[in-house]
Structure formats: C-alpha cells, structure tokens
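Format notes (please read before filing issues)

Several people have asked whether sequences and structure tokens are stored in separate files. They are not. Every record keeps both together, in the order shown below: the sequence lines, then the token lines. Line labels are part of the format and must not be stripped during preprocessing.
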Amino acid sequence: MIENSPDARPQSGLKDSGVVFEAIAEGGITRFLVLYQQEKPQLIGPVRSIRLYDVEWVAAFNASTAHVGGSAGGLVEVRNGDYRDIDQFFNAGSYWRASDRYAPHNVYTSFAKLDALNTAKGYTSSAFTGFTRIDGKASDVPTATLIDIKLSSALYNSTYAYDKASNTYLRSQGGAPHTDREQGQIAPSVVVAMKVDESTVLQDGKREAITTIGSGAATIFQNGTVQEVTWHKTSKTSQVTYTDATGKDVPLVRGQTWIAAVPNGAGSVTWQ
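Then the structure lines:
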C-alpha cells in the first residue's frame, strides 16, 4: 500500500509496478494498492495502511501484502489466515522510517527486505489468474488522447496524455506531472476507469466502503483508443475481468495497468 497525500509525493516504486488500483481512502484522499511481479524496486513508499476493498482486490493475486496497519474491517479480513499478511506492525525489521520525511509519511521498504521476509515465511510462489493480455500497437487514428478522471478534488483528480511514440499515457495529478522520485513521470500502458458503488460507513471512525464484488461499467484506454466495457468480479478470490457489449473478454495491453475506482454519482471520466 502506497500513500498519495501531498506530503507523500513524490512516491518511490510506483513506476516499476505492474498493476495499480487507485481508490479513495478517507476525506477524498486516494491511496494505491500497488502490485509487483517482474520488477523489484529497492525503494518503495511511503507505505501506509490497508482498507477492506484493497484486501478484496489483492486476494485474486495471491500476493504478500505489505502495509502499516489498516482500517478495522481491513485488518479483520487480512488477518483471518487466508492472506499473506506482512504488516509492518508485526515485521518492523522489514521496514524503516526515512529521515527526510515526517511521520506518518515516512515508512519505506525494499524488495531486498520483502524477499527476505517472504522467504522466511515460505511465501516463495503465487498461483493466480492475471488479466488477459495482448501486445500493444498504437492506433493509426487515436480516439482518446487526453483523459480526465475525477475521483474527489483537484489534488487527487488525474489526467492522462496519450504519447503515441511510446504507446503510453503520461499521468498527471493535482495539475502537475505525477512522478516517481527515482524513475520520472508515471506512464501506464493501460488506464481503466472502473465505476464502483462507494459510501461512507462508521467503523473505527468514518471509512469508505467500496463494492468490489459484482459488476459495473468501466472504460478502458489503450493504444490511443477508448472502449466502454463491463467489469466483473464474482468472488473475493476471482480476478476482475472486462467484457464488451457482446460479452466477449477484452484483453489488456501488456505493461503497467492503472485502475481507478471511480465512485458512481460523485466521480467522472471524460476524454477527447
């Protein structure tokens, strides 16, 4: 889990990730569930707490879950024995606090530490079904070159400018390029705006509740094109899938995939 408040920016380790789920935590502040497979950055963070919907998304990947505590509902779920929970609360030696940032925005980890921790716990392989993938090819006639995704407020809304040469989407947030501190501007190959039901509930304070299981509308941007689809997730451990109007599975271009959970009613996605 990587934080996205202004005090956490620029983050480390985002650009090298494979899949990112972005969703509102509290007060309109978004947070990132960041998944790695091939790349192993040696600086990741700031690491923050987890929410129940994050646990339900990560369940499909059978992944070890690095975080610093979480909401009451999220912790009950991630600690129930069905997950590879590597919470900083119980594995402090695998994380550290940076001196150039102030708490709570200064917890970091690395793959050197996480690999050692996972090996010690026997978490050395994962069995999961990923997204259906396809090789990318930039469209000769792009239909969506500027994407605007509104999740909450100006600080957390994002835009993506399509770069045909690299067949990627240059991400900005808060009116400025969104950069990885070590690797430069974040540029996913695929951007997905996934409409979700979201509400505020009272747990250990006010928390956002997001419906992750079921189906809903989604918009996929890849190869410079836009496609309206339907997302599906049938259970906690099943993967999110996307189908077109005929019910056919929609493959995603290989490369980083950025999935924004856009609240129904409050959020929006537009493009030109």
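For reference, the curators noted about this record: The chain has a mean pLDDT of 97. The chain has two domains: 2-121, 133-271.
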